[in-house]
Write a structure and sequence with these properties.
This protein is mostly helical. It is built from 39 helices and no strands.
Length: 789
């Protein structure tokens, strides 16, 4: 038992064999100019097309074999000298063929020659042919027959400029012929859906899809008729075609034909007949994919608008946006079962159309977003990922068009659309917004816009609906928070009062972000506030009431509250760094008590919160470095802080760390650019103390490991001696330097000292520096001359 495919192949082979068999005898008759025999065998050959066993793609193969033979037969019919019968008589003669299908194929072939002979008006022959083709009502056979009629007649239509043009109304006749053929073909095509058993619906739809181009070609022919101007298209062609589309009530046909109309007719025709075309959409079957049809229409119109600025007034004249918006509303209302993704896709297409055609009309953009909000409000929870993706596309479109988030912030419905996103997608969209700001260097410079912006990106700066921040991927979380931090740096306004408002709004939002986010956002916020402080540098004033102009004091109070919030994390190392930054800013504003308070807070953190030895080393060096740059302190406050710093330096865990911190403290007593802070004696005390600690470290290493450590610390201290010697510290003498060099040499050659190439290189480099200074001459050279190497 052969399966279906093998059966079809067998039937096709039999059909082709039959055509070849009768074609052979037909060729022999043509060669001998025997018209009677030629008609007989051609009719028998065409009878092979009467089969009902083949699917469309197989039937097409059979049809093409017959079509090739008909072309040869047509050449014979054209040459009256060969058969001696006039075309009028031939037209009558072929109608005597026994079976209707061969008869009509022969009639169409001779009809083509009849029109070409101009012995009868083209419109009369075409009308006759299209009417007689109704005799074949089998869908596949009828479609191919009418396709043959359309093929042989397309260059013989009585069109304007055609050699077959007759009186003034001939274009109408050409249009009527094509429309009638189209209507009949569509009816045959739709009828296929209702033939055969119900269980093979998918197979029938597949077969129909294979035949759709036969029907669509009629619309293409209509679009090519020169005489079909806008007026005729508007009054005759489009209404008649839409009538057939709507009345056929077949979803496959309606979708395909609407797509054909949009694709084959000119854009300017669509624009001028927009209302008529759109009015058909709500009348289509509920299962028709109207969203794709409308999307394609809007895409074509958008491209048309982009092609030339001259056509834009036409869009305003016909109120294209209003008509499209109303049509989409009606379609969504009519198709109650339309999934969310379909409705949102329509709004995305409408928004794309609006942004391309009316980029200056932000009210139109906001209307589209508002319509989408209305649709989303009727959905309890948007769970469809495809729909969510379309919402992101909807929100991204204005950003991509305007390259400016500031424009999007003026759209009242923009944040309302974002509220309908789930947590994950909300974050994705927030990242898109931030990336847009960074890419386009957008400046958000007013407090109101910053408020709207931070409402939009709230998914990144605080937990929504009690979402667990611990469930987030660590890398993703860091990337998100770093993006927020970068965003904060971009917010700026030249007006101090407005800038302070911006800082307060950002603080309000970021402080609600929870302890895990604060280390990322507080730092950016603090530096943003410090930028404002430096802008106001030198201003003073007590804070009385809310309307007092912005002062550094007011900002420093805000800064203290921000940094204090890090205690909830806790993040003492970061807080200490920020306190020191604030102290330096207070120094620039000449606010001694404020700077002192920040140093106090830094020391409290160092004492109570920072326990790790490495963190302590980093912290004490930061404190020493910052304190060294301060010039705002009086003698008492500076002494207090300096004493604290040196005390903590000497109490570090490792001797090596103690030594380096203590000699670093020497810089606290000698600052070049400040008068009065040049205490050479205390500098020397620090260096001697560092030297004692280095010596102790060497001895401890010797006891613990049986050999001393490298002499690097001694060389580092030597460099400090040389620095202060060069700066003119009278307490640092050449003899002290010589003694230290001798000590280093002794330690280096000691058996218990571990050899170290780095230390040796460091020492050699230092000694070369001394030699270099000696050779320079001048005052510096004379000074170094006293050092004997």
């Amino acid at each position: 038992m052969l399966n279906g495919t093998e059966d079809e192949e067998k039937w096709l082979a039999e059909g082709i064999a039959g055509i070849q068999h009768y074609a052979f005898f037909m060729h022999r008759a043509l060669d001998s100019n025997n018209l009677r025999e030629a008609l007989k065998y051609s009719a028998q050959m065409l009878s092979e097309l009467r089969t009902s066993k083949l699917p469309p793609h197989k039937y097409y193969e059979l049809y093409m074999r017959a079509f090739d033979e008909l072309k040869r037969l047509e050449l014979f019919f054209k040459d009256e000298s060969k058969h001696g019968v006039s075309v009028v008589d031939l037209y009558e003669l072929v109608q005597h063929a026994g079976n209707i299908l061969p008869r009509l194929y022969l009639l169409c072939t001779v009809g083509s020659i009849y029109i070409k002979s101009k012995e009868a008006p083209a419109k009369e022959v075409l009308k006759d042919l299209v009417e007689m083709c109704r005799g074949v009502q089998h869908p596949i056979r009828g479609l191919f027959l009418r396709s043959y009629l359309a093929q042989i007649s397309r260059d013989k239509l009585p069109d304007i400029g055609s050699e077959y043009e007759g009186d003034a109304d001939t274009v109408i006749d050409a249009v009527e012929f094509v429309l009638q053929n189209f209507n009949e073909m569509n009816k045959l095509w739709v009828r296929m859906q209702h033939q055969g058993p119900g269980g093979v619906k998918e197979k029938r739809e597949k077969e129909r899809s294979e035949l759709q181009d036969l029907v669509g070609k009629n619309l293409h022919v209509l679009s090519q008729i020169e005489g079909v101007d806008l007026e005729m298209y508007k009054e005759t062609v489009l209404p008649r075609v839409l009538e057939q589309v709507v009345n056929c009530k077949d979803d496959l046909a309606q979708y395909y034909l609407m797509d054909c109309i949009i694709q084959v007719f000119p854009d300017e025709y669509h624009l001028q007949t927009l209302e008529t075309l759109l009015s058909a959409c709500p009348q289509l079957q509920p299962t028709v994919d109207v969203k794709t049809v409308l999307s394609q229409l809007m895409d074509r119109l958008s491209n048309y608008a982009a092609s030339s600025a001259d056509v834009l007034p036409e869009f305003l004249q016909v109120e294209a946006f209003s008509k499209l918006s109303n049509a989409i509303g009606k379609v969504i209302e009519a198709q109650v079962d339309m999934p969310a993704v379909g409705a949102i896709t329509l709004y995305v297409s409408l928004l794309t159309f609006t942004l391309r055609v009316h980029p200056d009309r932000l009210d139109y953009v906001d209307l589209v977003l508002g319509a989408c909000v209305k649709k989303l409000s009727n959905i309890p929870e948007l769970e469809d990922r495809r729909a969510m993706k379309q919402v992101v596309a909807l929100l991204s479109a204005p950003l991509e068009k305007y390259n400016d988030i500031v424009t999007a912030l003026t759209l009242s419905n923009y944040p309302r659309v974002m509220d309908h996103l789930d947590i994950g997608t909300n974050k994705v969209m927030a990242m898109v917004i931030i990336q847009s700001i960074m890419k386009n260097y957008s400046c958000i410079s007013t407090a109101d816009k910053v408020e709207v912006l931070f409402e939009l990106i709230k998914g990144l700066i605080k937990d929504i609906d009690d979402a667990d921040v611990d469930e987030l991927d660590e890398e993703d979380f860091k990337e998100e928070q770093n993006s927020v931090a970068r965003l904060i740096h971009t917010l700026y306004n030249d007006e101090p009062e407005e800038m302070l408002k911006i800082i307060c709004i950002v603080r309000k939002h970021t402080m609600a972000g929870g302890p895990k986010r604060l280390p990322f956002t507080v730092s950016s916020l603090v530096f943003s506030a410090l930028r404002l402080v430096r802008q106001l540098q030198g201003l003073e004033g007590d804070i009385v009431g809310e309307d007092v102009p912005v002062t550094p004091k007011k900002i420093f109070q805000l800064l203290t509250q921000m940094i204090d919030s890090l205690s909830a994390v806790p993040s003492p190392e970061l807080a200490l760094r920020l306190y020191l930054q604030c102290a330096e800013a207070a120094n620039g504003c000449d606010l001694e008590h404020v700077a002192y308070e920040y140093f106090t807070q830094a020391f409290v953190l160092y004492e109570e919160e920072i326990a790790d030895s490495k963190a302590q080393v980093t912290a004490i060096h930061l404190i020493i470095g910052t304190l060294q740059r301060m010039n705002v302190f009086g003698v008492e406050n500076r002494d207090t802080l300096t004493h604290k710093a040196t005390g903590y330096s000497a109490r570090l865990l490792k001797k090596v760390d103690q030594c380096r911190a203590v000699y670093a403290c020497s810089h606290l007593f000698w600052v070049d650019d400040q008068d009065g802070i040049k205490d050479g004696e205390r500098v020397l005390l620090c260096l001697k103390r560092a030297l004692r600690i280095a010596n102790a470290a060497q001895q401890m290493a010797n006891v613990a490991r049986g050999s001393g450590g490298p002499v690097t610390l001694f060389v580092e201290i030597l460099n400090k001696y040389l620095y202060f010697f060069e700066k003119g510290n009278g307490q640092i003498t050449s003899s002290a330097i010589e003694g230290l060099i001798e000590l280093i040499n002794t330690e280096t050659h000691c058996d218990s000292t571990s050899p170290d190439s780095i230390s040796d290189a460091f020492l050699a480099s230092t000694l070369r520096y001394i030699q270099f200074q000696k050779q320079k001459g001048s005052v510096a050279g004379e000074k170094f001359e006293s050092i004997k190497l």
